Amino acid sequence: ASGGGGGGGGSGGGGGGGSRVTFLSVLGLSGPSVNPYTIPLANADLTTPPSAALALSETSVLVSVEATLLTIDETSIQDKLLQTGPFSRLARSGDLVSALSAADGTLFVYRMPDWDVVSSFATKSRVPPLQLAWVGADACALFWDKLLFIVGPQGNWIKYSYEGPVRLQSTADGMFVLSGSDVEYLQRVPEPLERVFAVGSTAPAAILFDAAEHFANELPKADELVRAIKSSLAGAVDDCCAAAAASTDLETQQSLLRAASFGRAFLDYYDADRLVSTAASIRVLNQLRVPAIGIHLTLGGLEALGAEDLLGALCARRHHYAALQVAKVLKVRPDAVLVDWAIAKVRSTVAAEAGGSGRTPTEVEVAGQILERLSSSPGVSFAEVAAAAARLKKPALAAALLDHEPRAADQVPLLLSLGRPGLALAKAVDAGDTDLIYLVVLHVMQKRPFAELVQLLAGQRPALDLLQ
C-alpha cells in the first residue's frame, strides 16, 4: 500500500497528503519456501485511506469510502451503493458482513451478494471498539478496553469483563478469546444439545435420552417412551450423535452415545457407520483438548481442517505420538507423521552436537532408530528424511537411509548429490531404468574425469551395453 493506512488479510490500502491510494495483494507468504510477490489491484482513485478495510479473498478487498462500501479486485471496482457509512470496523462470516457506523456506532449486518440489511443494533457508543469479530455465524463481538460485548441476531446482548486486553479470533462455529493468561472459546449452544437438554424439551432426542436413562435404571417406562417417538426415532439417534460430538464433557458424551446406541437397537435399519465415525471423532477431539496438547476444535472445525492439516499441526508442535494415535483413529496413513518425526530426530541430534551436551548418538545409531520406527509403515519415504540429513551435513546417515528407499527415482539423484555415483549407478541398473542410468552417466561425464567414468562402467555391464 502506498503512503499509510489500513488493510486486512493479504491486501492493504494507504495514502495521505494527497498521494494516490494503491491496493496490493501480497502472495507467496506460505508454503515450504517463502517467496513473496505483489499483485496490484484496480485503481479506485482514492486520495485518502479508507476508514476500514477487509480482505475478502487473496486478491479482493472490501473498503469503506464515504457512505458506501467498495469491493476492489485485480480488474474491477464495485460500489455497493450503501448510504449508511462511513464505517470504522468491518468483519465477515460466510456471506454475512458486519459493519460498524463511524457516525453513531450502529452495527449493521449485510448479506452478500445483494447487500440487504439483515439486522442493525445501536451500540450507543461513538468510540469505535478496538476489535469487531464474528462468533461463528450467530453473533457479533465488539471489544472495547476490558469490555467484550456480544450481540445476537435478534438484538439480544451479553457482556463480559476482562482485566486486560484480549485478542478475538473467529472460527467457523465460534470465537477464541485470547488473553495474556487464558484462552477461552465462545460459541452458541449447538442446536442438537439444545434439543436434548433444554428445560422442558419434548424433542424426540430429549425423549430418547430420557428413555435410555430409564432403561439404565431398569425402569419400565423406557419402552413406552421409545414407542412414543417410533416414527422419528432415526432422527433422534442422529441428534444424540450430533449432541455427543458437540459436547465437551466426557460423561455427557458417553451418556449421549449410549442413548444413540439404545435407540439404534429399535430400528430395523440404521447406518452403524454414523455412530462409529462419531465416536472416533469424539476420541480425537478429546485427545486434542488435553492440556498437554491444548488444541480446541469442534466437530465442524475438525471437518473443515481435515486430517492432513490436523496431523501437520500436531507435528509442528512436536506431538508426534498424538499424531500417530489420531491417524490410527481416523484411519489415515501415518507416513507424513513418521517422516516428520524422523526429520525432527535428525535435527535434534545436530542441535545436541552443536550444544556439546554430553555424548550424542552416532549417525549409524540414529539411522538404526529411524529405520526401526519407519520400517513398520511400508511405502514411507526414506528419501525425504535422507534429503534432510544431507542438508544437515549428515552424509553417512543420508546414505544409510537411502539404502532402504524402495523407489530408485528418489534414490539415484540424492546419491549423486552425496558424491556416490557408483552406488547410484548400481541402484539404477537394479531398477532397470534407462533414464536413471543415463542420468548417472551424464552426471559423471560433467562432474568427474573420463577415466572415472570408464572405471564406473566397467563394473556395470548393463549400463555399458546401453551406451554402445
UniProtKB/TrEMBL annotation:
Alphabetical list of Pfam families matching this protein: Vps16_C, Vps16_N
Annotated Vps16 C-terminal domain residues: 380-466
GO cellular component: endosome; HOPS complex; lysosomal membrane
Vps16 N-terminal domain span: 120-276
GO biological process, one term: intracellular protein transport
Molecular functions (GO terms): actin binding
Similarity field: Belongs to the VPS16 family.
Protein name: Vacuolar protein sorting-associated protein 16 homolog
